[in-house]
Automatic annotation (TrEMBL):
<dbReference type="Pfam" id="PF04343">
    <property type="entry name" value="DUF488"/>
</dbReference>
<protein>
    <submittedName>
        <fullName>DUF488 domain-containing protein</fullName>
    </submittedName>
</protein>
<dbReference type="InterPro" id="IPR007438">
    <property type="entry name" value="DUF488"/>
</dbReference>
Length: 148
């Protein structure tokens, strides 16, 4: 791999629809790559799968893709969120999962270039989208990550 991949990440929580879509447009995002396990929750508001796909297309001609291999399992998510697990355990379990899934072989660099990994967390610090981006950079060594 030699061509640099420009990969963005964003969470929709604590953002209005206007803030969310303007941020994507200003960054020049070409496609949103949904990394959520559950993307149809009523709590997701404008970010529910069908609504988000429509808005992205209408507002900025931005493509929408949902890649479940980039999402945690329900067990890993529940242990962290519902059972108030610690971040270090979640991070280790999630990284073990994406190593096992070999996501670097399942996701095309062409899809990621100009793409934006989406999940619900407002900040990337304790979020699996950051772990995905960093893991792929370690594997490919040419991913420029920008957290929006």
């Amino acid at each position: 791999m030699n061509k640099e991949i420009n990969l963005f990440t964003i969470g929709f929580t604590q953002k209005s629809a206007e803030q969310f879509f303007e941020t994507l447009l200003k960054a020049g995002v070409q496609r949103v790559i949904d990394t959520r396990l559950n993307n149809v929750s009523q709590l997701a508001g404008f970010a529910k799968r069908k609504d988000l796909e429509y808005f992205l297309r209408k507002v900025g001609n931005i493509e929408y893709i949902h890649i479940l291999d980039l999402a945690p399992t329900q067990d890993i998510l529940d242990a962290y969120k519902k059972k108030k697990g610690d971040w270090e355990t979640y991070e280790k379990q999630f990284i073990d999962l994406i190593v096992k899934r070999k996501i670097e072989e399942k996701v095309s660099p062409d899809i990621l270039d100009g793409g934006c990994l989406l999940c619900s967390e407002a900040k990337p610090h304790h979020c699996h989208r950051r772990l995905v981006a960093e893991y792929l950079n370690k594997k490919w060594e040419n991913v420029k990550i920008c957290h929006l």
